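notes to self, project folder thing:

trying the whole complex as one job this time. last attempt i did each chain seperately and stitching them together was a nightmare. three parts in total, labels are on each line so i dont mix them up again. if this works i'll redo the older ones the same way
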Amino acid sequence: MSMNELREGFFQECEDLLEALSDGMAVIDAGNADSDTLNAIFRAVHSIKGGAAAFGLEALVEFSHAFENVLDAARADRLTLQGEALALCFRAADRLADLVADARADQPSDSAASATLIAGLDRLLGAPSDAPPAAPAPPADEAVAPAFTPLSAPVSFDLPAKKGGAPAAAPDAAGGMSHYCIRFAPSRETYATGNEPALLFRALAAMGDLSVKADLSRVPPLLEMAWDEGYIIWNLTLHTRAGEDRLREVFDFVEGACNLDIRRLDAATLAGPQPGPAGAPGGTAADAAAAPAPATPSPAPDTVATDEPAARPGQGAPARATIRVDLERVDRLINLVGELVINQAMLSQSIDEANLPSGNGVDSAMGQLRQLSSELQERVMAIRAQPVKPLFQRMSRIVREAGHASAKLARLVTSGEATEVDKTVIERLADPLTHMIRNAIDHGLESPEARKQAGKPPEGIIRLSAGHRSGRVVIELSDDGAGINRARVHETAVARGLIAPEKDLSDEEIDNLLFMPGFSTSPEVSALSGRGVGMDVVKSEIQRLGGRVTLASMPGRGTTVTISLPLTLAVLEGMVVEVAGETLVVPTTALRETLKAAAADVQRIGAHGWFIAIRGGFVPIVDLGAELGFQPGPEGFVGRVLLLIESGSGRRAALAVDRVLDQREVVIKGLENNYGHVPGIAAATILGNGRIALIIDPDEISAAPAPGPGAAAPRPALATAAGA
Amino acid sequence: MKLRVLAVDDSRTMRGMLDAALRDAGFEVRLAEDGIEGLERLNEEMPDIIITDINMPRMDGFGFIEAVRAERRYRGLPILVLTTESAPELKARARNAGATGWIVKPFDEGKLAVAIERVATV
Amino acid sequence: MTDAAEQHPVSRREIVSFRVANQDFCIDIGSVREIRGWTPTTVLPHAPPYVTGVMNLRGAVLPVVDLSARLGLGPTEPSPRHVIIIVMIEEMTAGLLVDAVSDILTVNGEEIKPTPDVAAGPAKTLVEGVLAIDERLIRLIDLGRVFPDHERGEP
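result (full assembly):
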């Protein structure tokens, strides 16, 4: 791998690490700061620091170091992450993400922003939450958190000279020859850690003139020997130009796990004998050719841990093996499978039309082919599915920033992050969601004072949830703010000429005025949400994804915006119907029942409105052919087939069709890319005969008013807005 | 004969760097993502030396070293710990777990070679 | 004129010419993906009258524009003799219903003249220039203006 590839790999890894960090922060924010979580976020920042150091990304190293120190203190229970400290960590996490992005783009980072945060982080350590915050405390734990070492610093195995009793003798700065006397008594631990005296001697020998003598005086009779104990004491002398620090460096790995005494021989030390261990002077000397061989026989009870790796308290499920694949390859695969499914349907239809004698084997083979290709398609689509988690995580930052900018206290609570949605959908949801969240905080939440007066906690809650509901993905964003001020919305809509002043609107209709193009209730344009982008843009973006947006509000209690999206962008279960000679598909998710209109149940109300009585209620009848402009309005509905549908917002309608042909899975083909949105139509599909059939959008169809005979007449503005 | 090094680190980046540096220094390299995978690779690969990170999910470096040392045949296997700090506490802990030595990050090829030479017969 | 063309080979362009309502039109060959025989289209609700509907091109759903209707020359009664030219308009793919494809020609950019002022209505806005070849007047269509999608937002 080249350095560039390694570097790019590092940034890709950073994405995952930042996600893990953000994840953990959310858990802590929810009040569950367990040690696993603290360890995980520490590890994430630690890994970023490690990689950053390797690539010389100093700003990133410096920042992650300061952040890591705080997290280290938290996981050691020296600091509790709550309140101010937690808020600071959130900002630090955001800053870290920025630094990573800047480093990746090779652009300078806002060093002032980093410096402010680093100072804040350092202060956290200086004044732990349970200590009096008075003194301008020194860094809490200098030993664990040594000063940041830049990449270019010389390699240092810095050993505090407090052990071993030898005051750090000044090395021979002049570089002249020194004479060292080393007494090295390996212990059981020296060998148990896999250290090998001979290798250390080799390193010393490379520094100068070395002589080695083994002191065997402590070696007991064979039968009394413990197999793993170190009995031999090594007496070494070394003539070298190297300083004592370099000698100590050689023993770095064993220092503390052996008895070590290093002396520079000068007149004074040469005069007196070395203080040896009890009764140990002299003894037999031997050449250091052979190191003590690790004994083989062992009575030690071996508890082998390798077979039960999961027994250790770990971090949940084992990591799954993954590969990175170019998205284009996946898409090509998806297109091909789509073709395959269509072809299979065409083949199936040709066979049907061929009227083969039964029992020829073709039917069952076709059935299997159908099943296989539909499963294949499902699996292939699943490749594109991704959890919404990273998207939700990005939103927590939006909440923090929007709260900050509007001087409101806001907290994001998420659920259902594991819900999987098509990757394209996730990407294209980011902007609408961002806008909706800013809106919720800017317009929805009250100021902390107003909330207190209303008997609410000062901090507003923004809830973001995802889940599967009747074959669709539903994403809900709610706030616990003041709710929509309907009087004002109505007033504004009238003032802008969007609705007639005398028009009487239901609450739902008023709420939906917010989706009208150009609507904004804010008297002054806010820096946050009033950027000329309104909820109408949100709505059209969601519709482009085959989704729907609805809005519900409770005065004083808050507002909920619900986005409902198709599970995949590919397949849909539908009822194939015929209307005025055209073939259409009605999604079965919206379908409640199929009925034949009996004379007694059909009512005509007003000039053009037809209704059918169903279990005591009246449901408007929509003539699909007329609504879509295929034929003029009908004279009556008695005897026609009605499909009772219910839209995502709960509105019901009875769709009048000529015939029901089939119920089947159809492949969704978007109209948007090559044409644009067609009112009442969600998408298209290709039938077995190769012809295109349009797929009805139950929401838009049920929202449409009953058409007059001159269907070309302009519709009321509201209906157009809701449908466009 | 080339020495075979098993390098265990949860960071993709670090694994990549270790791989590149160790190969350049003339070692044969095997990689694992955490302690658990390290233990699995250990028996397959029979490395001459192990280099492991400390902070890892599932099984951290300390746990990994303890598990390696718990197997009789790996008692003398040199194990080097990768660490960003050279704090005495950390060294003591690594040693108590059975580590042979440590390498302070960021490392370069030379630093790796020095540390390896000190614990293995190159 | 030929001399000038030889000095500026850069301005040579290839065009596909075709007939619509007994008139000759052309478009740049770079926009043409393929040419197919007429197949019935599926009607699109609320579409302008000159959009005959959508067709299936190997799994993709494409709108088809009746060029004659679009140019204000009256709707086409499509039959199997009619032809659909599949074109790319920016990111979009669409079909153009025409009577027949006549030729592929190489012309000089200088040969394309401004549209004479005699025309009016859609034909005037859609034709970006004319050229005379073998005493025939060929109108160059501005593809960017053909498709209703590109007029969205306009009243």
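what i see at first glance: The beta strands of chain B are 4-8, 28-32, 49-53, 79-83, 101-104.
need to look closer tmrw
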